[in-house]
Amino acid sequence: MKFPKEKKIYCKKCKKHTKHKMKEFKSGAKRTLAAGNRRHERNVNHGYLGKYKYVVLVKKQNKRPTFVAECVDCKKKIPYSLGKRMKKIVQQ
User: Taking the C-alpha atoms of 17, 18, 19 and 20 in order, what is their torsion angle to the nearest 10 degrees?
Assistant: First the structure.
């Protein structure tokens, strides 16, 4: 889906509609000491280093993309989501 690089939306800090730069949200690096990662490592590295069998869940093919909208005037960043599922995003 084609998506604009700039969009005019409401800014809570400026209290008016202003232009916002839209960037696709990318999550940071996963924490190595998180409980899920520790549990996974514990199951993988036990016994004769056999494979860790877990229940495979069928995932949906598409995801709802989230964007970070940054106000041009005050530089405030707001999470922004369309709420539609799509495979690919092309920003213009």
Answer: -90
Instruction: Return the structure tokens found at 67.
Output: 């964007």
C-alpha 49/C-alpha 13 separation (Å) is: 54
pTM of the predicted model over 0.70:
no
Q: What is the pLDDT of residues 15-53, one digit of tens each?
A: 999 999 999 998 899 899 999 899 888 877 777 766 666
Which domains does the chain possess?
A: 1-27+62-92 (3.10.450.80)
Q: What is the spatial distance between Cα 19 and Cα 71, in angstroms, rounded to a whole number?
A: 6
**Residue 85 structure tokens:** 């599922």
